[in-house]
Amino acid sequence: MTTASRPAAPSLRASVALIAGREITSRVRSKSFLISTGILLALIIASIVGTHLFTSTFGDTRVAAVGVAAELLDGAPGLEIEEAASLAEAERLVRDGDVEAAVVPLDDPAPGTPGVEIVGLSDAPSALVQSLAIAPEVRLLDPSPVDQGIGFIVAFAFGIIFFTAAITFGGTVAQSVVEEKQTRIVEILLTAVPAKALLAGKVIGSSVLALGQILLIAVAAGLSLMLTGQDVLLTDLGPAAVWFLGFFAVGFVLLAAMFAASAALVSRMEDVGTVIQPVTWLVMLPYFLIIFFNDNETVLTVMSYVPFSSPVGMPVRIFLEQAAWWEPLVALALLAATAVVIVQLGARMYRNSLLRTGARVPLAEALRG
Amino acid sequence: MLEIRGATKRFGDRTVLDDVTFGVGAGRLTGFVGGNGAGKTTTMRILLGVLSADAGEVLVDGRPITADDRRGFGYMPEERGLYPKMRVHEQLVYLARLRGMRAADASAAADELIERLELTERRDEPIEKLSLGNQQRAQIAAALVHDPSVLVLDEPFSGLDPMAVETVLRVLAERAARGVPVLFSSHQLDLVERLCDDVVVIADGRIRAAGTRDELRARGAGRQWELQVGDDAGWVRGLHDIAVIDFDGDYVLFEADPVAAQSVLRLASERGSVERFAPRRPTLTEIFREVVQ
Where is the chain membrane-spanning (chain A) (predicted)? Predict the structure, then answer.
């Protein structure tokens, strides 16, 4: 044509990278995003550290022990033992306030009792009394490898992380689609790049953001657990958390494509909420299921395979050690296959609706062709 | 050369474009005029491929247009829009890079346009913080930043103050001088008349006139005449075969065929001195009013 050298067409990959990069920078630069991420991280750290502080006592109880009592108390949690040579010395330590109480052996203990007595000044520290109380032996007929309470907390945590991240970042994708339609910049963009590049850039950009935030959450939670000495829980949680990340990555691509395709049906920001409602419900479903049915193995098994709930269901089953090694692989393959189909349908809806302004585009028309 | 041939578009039962055919020559500033709802925007959207025609085709240098051609177009849509929160320079660079420019070239081109369009102080401000006039300049920059091979601008001058109009005009004329076909629509017919090489008039979805500005004006010429004499020209009003349109002492504007006009001139010179006698070239506004009726 008339002007000299026109630059070569950018490859699809280059266009997608450029578009994804813009999505990410524009989001990361927004103050509300930074503030909400900060608050989220603070809440997570505070809840882990707070729970730890609440359950453990504030510092160890100093206790004097005489003779065999010292051996008996050795290794008891929450106690700092100071060995005393005699009953008299132990009593002196209590009187002086050097220790809160003393544990001394009885001369002739009654059968079935610990054989020691607690010497306190005006009252006895409860931590000490507890550690000396006799707990009956427990025998489980069907032992669960993991504590039910912890199981629920983990299920709830996966559920709420999935739910909030999907809603937040899915909402961002939807808004970004409508922003381009509403400002009509989409008309300029489409003369430069194909619709599929635009969609792919948005989905990838928001997936990177969502995964990044979840990784931050994982790191914050892991560090908090380690710093509060709950490494044991961390080791149990590790594999489940890694699977969760994998499932989330694939599952979010699926959801983001659905959010984008739905949002493309409308042309005004005010209509975004209504049009993405069905997808929102789909995101909330696994969250509610996991809360109500986390102790129902059948429901959990079904959930762990259904593509929309497997990102929560399968990691929970992995944590509860209910899943065989191949199960997450099958579920992940199912999720990926669904994502491929949905992303293609979504791309068609997106392409068909992008340039249609005014009234909401009927779903049947968007899917045509 | 950008051409549209036989373009027809229906929305439901309504035919918005009916067999639209015209061309935009290389290096020509072409004004696209028509009333509201005449089909200007629809035509431009079809040229850009953001709307598909029911029939007809768009040609570039005589062959059907490709996506690659369109990537080289500069387009300013009717409803303005850039990313509200993106900074001016950053936004221009982004748009240029989407069209395949290297980052450094894109940045340099953006800076040059920012300077030409007098946006230097707003370079790193988000679009939403700019005044409407400055947003408009940024929008024009967005259409130009990738050194387009064809320019299609929908109402580029609306909302600009007279100074800004001149600035934008200079930039557009410069692009045309480099050989770029430039098509722009406008309601401001005086502007189109002043600066366009070619004019296309559309009404009710049909092209009513298309050609060089001078051709169009000449087409309407030859029917109206101006006569200025040394003394009172009142006697012209008594003549047959002519219709006086305007009369003011020694000046008269009348409509007549060339033979009748010549006889008026003869009569005038018999009566006294003739200061001026000439066919009157109608303004574009008058032609427009006439062709769209």
Answer: 32-54, 150-174, 208-228, 240-265, 272-293, 329-347
